[in-house]
Write a sequence for this structure.
């Protein structure tokens, strides 16, 4: 089981649309840069929104999750966030051996139940435990002394992670969870720590991969979840799809994509109303030094259509990687001489360093670098007459929806005085569209920087902006 997920992660690590009818102002972005956070679950209690997050502790360039505890953030305006610290950790579950992954908190009768996936050291890999506390901030203690859900639970998911718990108006609570395309659902007993009846495989949850989030609005049940099919995201990346139902156990009807892929390969939604405004809370790799295993929770406003469908969320997050906003800092590209292995005669290499902020990956209005009809690996390069210290690049890919597509992968290299070598500690070379893909690395002092770009089969590649910071 673990090997399957590790293989999926290896694939993810190897690869690295915004539209709206409303005009939201930028939201908090990210909620903190003091630590890396992931897998948000949101809860509103009184005038406060709480975010229960995972905590990414992978080193720069790490290729797997290092997650040992969960933090709780709170806010009364959804903009300024207080980190209340690690309110739960693996040590809360004496039977757990690692992997403090995506949890969720559900209130009932004045208590707060925190459902959390951990490596239970038993058969298989991940189990779901439950802790309980008397306040949204705990303290939390193990409510069962063992897993609520494990591989020995009949009809459990191929990977028992990512619980979402929803309590209906009649008091019946439901738990959804799963990964590896295996969504599962069950009723919970009123004690909230035991399943009530069989585990079902709900129908109609189209392209489910993992990370379900369940809620209800105007009598309709909503299930948002991470999908990673080619209809919504690049290879290895997730988008957030959603389905609706008239019964909490389904069947569900798939409604579409509510959040496009972000700058991290994984994504994980929480959708909630707070003080009259709906929000999509999610994570990306946008914080300084971020990456697929160094993620950051952020949130954006979410708007509804009159028919009860959700508008696609506009990623307004700033400061690196989210929402199509360039990162801050000195862009050394502006003073560089650009060259390339190949550029189409009708394209403009210089466009990659004109400082223009593209509206989307299809925005050719200020020119673009493109290498149609070449396929395979091509490169673009910056040179400076004297060495510059560079520790980050931001790449905005060109995608004309014809012969030029987002690349399969990329690699940043620098000239070490005698050869091109990979930059040290590269955080991952993102290939997301409609945004600046941030790659951080241990700063190098160099006169040349190169971006090797490998195309997807059957396509060429292009770049709208390439920043060197
Ligand atoms: O953070 C570890 C795993 O990555 C979560 O359980 C998934 O939802 C994905 O975000």
């Amino acid at each position: 089981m673990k090997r399957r997920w590790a293989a999926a992660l290896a694939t993810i690590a190897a690869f690295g649309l915004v539209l709206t009818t409303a005009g939201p102002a930028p939201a908090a972005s990210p909620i903190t840069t003091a630590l890396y956070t992931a897998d948000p679950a949101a809860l509103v209690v009184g005038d406060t929104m709480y975010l229960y997050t995972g905590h990414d502790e992978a080193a720069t360039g790490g290729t797997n999750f290092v997650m040992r505890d969960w933090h709780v953030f709170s806010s009364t305006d959804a903009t300024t966030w207080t980190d209340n610290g690690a309110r739960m950790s693996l040590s809360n579950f004496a039977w757990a051996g690692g992997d403090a992954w995506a949890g969720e908190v559900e209130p009932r009768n004045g208590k707060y139940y925190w459902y959390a996936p951990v490596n239970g050291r038993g058969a298989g890999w991940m189990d779901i435990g439950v802790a309980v506390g008397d306040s949204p901030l705990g303290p939390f203690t193990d409510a069962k002394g063992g897993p609520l859900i494990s591989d020995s639970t009949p009809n459990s998911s191929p990977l028992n992670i990512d619980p979402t718990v929803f309590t209906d108006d009649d008091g019946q609570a439901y738990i959804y969870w799963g990964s590896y395309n295996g969504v599962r659902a069950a009723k919970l007993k009123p004690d909230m720590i035991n399943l009530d009846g069989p585990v079902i495989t709900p129908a109609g949850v189209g392209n489910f991969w993992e990370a379900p989030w369940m809620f209800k609005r105007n009598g309709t049940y909503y299930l948002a979840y991470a999908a990673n099919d080619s209809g919504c995201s690049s290879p290895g990346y997730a988008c957030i799809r959603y389905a609706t139902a008239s019964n909490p156990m389904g069947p569900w009807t798939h409604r579409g994509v509510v959040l496009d892929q972000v700058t991290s390969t994984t994504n994980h939604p929480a959708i909630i109303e707070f003080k009259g405004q709906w929000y999509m809370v999610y994570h990306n790799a946008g914080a300084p030094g971020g990456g697929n295993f160094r993620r950051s929770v952020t949130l954006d406003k979410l708007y509804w259509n009159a028919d009860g469908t959700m508008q696609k969320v506009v990623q307004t997050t700033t400061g690196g990687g989210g929402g199509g906003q360039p990162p801050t800092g000195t862009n050394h590209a502006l003073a560089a001489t650009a060259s390339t292995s190949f550029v189409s005669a009708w394209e403009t290499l210089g466009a990659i360093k004109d400082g223009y902020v593209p509206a989307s990956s299809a925005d050719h209005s200020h020119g673009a670098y493109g290498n149609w009809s070449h396929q395979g690996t091509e490169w673009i390069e910056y040179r400076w007459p004297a060495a510059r210290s560079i520790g980050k690049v931001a790449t905005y890919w060109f995608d004309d929806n014809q012969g030029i597509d987002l690349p399969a992968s990329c690699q940043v290299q620098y000239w070490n005085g005698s050869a091109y070598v990979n930059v040290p500690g590269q955080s991952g070379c993102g290939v997301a569209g409609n945004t600046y893909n941030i790659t951080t690395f241990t700063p190098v002092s160099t006169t040349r920087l190169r971006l090797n770009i490998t195309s997807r089969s059957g396509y060429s590649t292009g770049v709208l902006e390439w920043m060197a910071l």
Summary: The radius of gyration is 22 Å. The chain has one helix and 26 strands.
